[in-house]
Amino acid sequence: MKEPSTPKIKNISEHTKLSDLESRLNLLMINTEENFVLIDRDLNIVNFNHQFRKQYQILFHKDVIKGESILNYAQKDRIEIVKNIYNRVFSGERVESEIQAPLQDKKVVIIHNLFKPAFDENGIIIGAFVSSKDITEQRNAEERRRESEADLRAIFDNSSEGLMLLDHNGVIKAFNAKSAENHMLYNVNDDLEIGRKLIEYINDSRKEYFQDILNKVLSGETINYDIDYDQKDGSKKWFHATLNPIFEGKVITGICLTRSDISERKIAEEKLKKGHEILFKLTQNVPAAIYRFEMDGDGKMSFPFISKGIESMVPNITVEQIMNDAANAFNAVHPEDLPNLINSIMESRKNLSDWNLEYRIISEDKLVRWLKGSSRPEKIENRKENDTVVWHGYLEDITERKKSELKLQNLLNISSDQNKRLQNFAYIVSHNIRSHSSNIIGLVDIIGQAGETNNKAKFYEMLKTSTDKLGETIENLNEIITVQNELNIIQAGINLKEEITKTSNAINALLSQSNTQLFNKVPESCIVQVVPSYLESILLNLLTNAIKYKSPERDPIINIYTESTDNQLILSIEDNGLGIDMEKHGKKLFGMYKTFHNNKDARGFGLFITKNQIEAMDGKIEVISQLGIGSTFKIYFKREIS
């Protein structure tokens, strides 16, 4: 008796009745990432996964139910298309299709569907297996890539420069119209063709050189070079070429070649070079320095052009040293003039105003020379650094002129001083001496007419007083003449602190009687170059004045101290005496016979002679005073020895 044969399963629906198969299918559908659905031959839904259900809910707002026909979930305009697809699948064909479904925000979702026949263990088609995937982003990316490629192609084709792509063997893969146009200028007979090696178009004399360039680029270098070609008409064309390696990941797969016609630029450079050569020759024998000075946005200064004349004016400087960095030229500027020089340049840069300045430079051996500079600034608009300013101008050595000016000024000062002295003498002679002589003449006449009267002795006493005053005036005039005639007497180095101590000891009794405290704060090593007798007279006069014009309200205090500048020593004698009304008496303080207090023994001659003595030693004297507070006399000694 035959065993009953196993019935053949004609539809996938019958398989799902087997629990083990159903379990495996469910496990498969749960863990797959794609949308997944099983369809039997009657087009009924057998099974599906969560992703499939979710997709239909989002796109079509319908819930998927097992056992229903798949046609119930198809778009109306696609029902016949869907039937046709399944007919093809049930005949054993694998079918792919795409559908577009609009979302509420007017965006379109693109779904890719894959239909495959489902076979039983005997190879009989019992249904269809359908998977679907959202490929919207993929399609958008492809569209963007196509658009990008189209843009790149447009740029490639319409570039003003010649562009060419080579593979790693130097074979031409692509070139644009400009590259073909430039190629025709090389006097090469063959047209450019894709698939040929570029080196085939290179002149034999340059092939080895060009192959070396290709090898360097294929090893990862970027190469730039300029090359010229002779034309049939005898002219020359220049091109600039750049070769860059093309990478795919870390592998070099080809070369990008860029060529541009730089003939106009080369011609302009050649003309500029010739112009520079002519200018260079013209400026070499000019004693002044003709220059182009630049300052960029970061403050860096340079001389792109400066003539050789600068080397004879600025010590230890060569043209080469300052062309790229002007710092060396500024190092030679006199320290006192450097701030003004920098400020004047910055002001000219800010306002684009003309620059004009006279300043000093100083060599290592302390030799000082005067320079005069003049230039006009302008902005360089075609630079990336659009705040770059350039000055065109000249520098000249005016040392000899300055010496003449100083000599002339010295003569004018001497003439002015002499004029003032003549005015003083004229005043003394016309006023003081005339007054005394007129008084004496009058008294002599009176005495002559008085006879033997008792008043004769009185008249003689008056005559004696007048002659004494006349003698004092003549003595004062003699002292002034002595000071002015001793301008060239030898000066000596004197210890200032010791000299002040000697003077204070000489008036010790006067200091003691007036309860004056004197503080000598001058440094022990302070030496001044002076006429010794003048210094003694100056100190004695100023110290006795500080005591003579003391305040009745307090004991006198005298402070003596010094301070230094680059070429002067300043001696200050400060008191707390009566003080002087500077607004009222300041202009006539050092005048002859000028007094400002009611002291009976005041002659008004001490400060006058003191000022003359100080000026005779190329110094000066100043006063700071406040009525009722005190005075400070500042003496500026021209030379100091430390």
Helix content: 40-55%
Total number of strands: 23
Give unreliable regions as ranges. Answer: 1-9
Q: How many helical elements?
A: 19
Strand content: 25-35%
First-residue to last-residue Cα separation: 144 Å
- Decide which structural class fits the backbone: alpha+beta
Strand order across the biggest sheet? 2-1-5-4-3
Indicate the radius of gyration in whole angstroms.
55 Å
Largest sheet: 5 strands, antiparallel
Entry summary:
Helices cover about 40% and strands about 25% of the residues. The longest helix is centred in the middle third of the chain and has 52 residues.
Task: Characterise the protein shown here.
The termini are far apart. The strands form five sheets. This protein has a five-stranded antiparallel sheet, sandwiched between helices. Strands 7-6-10-9-8 form a five-stranded antiparallel sheet, sandwiched between helices. It has a five-stranded antiparallel sheet with strand order 12-11-15-14-13. The protein is of the alpha+beta class and 642 residues long. Strand 1 and strand 2 form a beta hairpin. It is 42% helix and 26% strand.
